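Hi support team,

I submitted a single chain yesterday and got back a structure, but I'm not sure I'm reading the token output correctly. Could someone confirm the output below corresponds to the sequence I sent? I've pasted both exactly as they appear in my results page.

Thanks,
R.
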Amino acid sequence: MAIYLHLQTHGMAPKEVACITKAYEQTLHALCVKDRDDPLTEMVAKTIIKIAQTGIKDASKISTLAIKELERR
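Hi R., thanks for writing in. Yes, this is the structure output for that exact sequence:
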């Protein structure tokens, strides 16, 4: 749920929203996060959006970079 609240405030195009949403879902799946109320979802959402804002348009690449970023924390 965290990603959807952030996307509403960033005013992105539908194609960008679809890419970011896919990256978010892929990342949560890879991290085995099933509870959408888990505080980790907020951290994942912010990381995904930050990476997407660099211009990367591939959901899998965004997800991979997000996982690497989150592992460093």
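A quick pointer for reading it: The chain has one domain: 2-72. Let us know if anything else looks off.

Best,
Support desk
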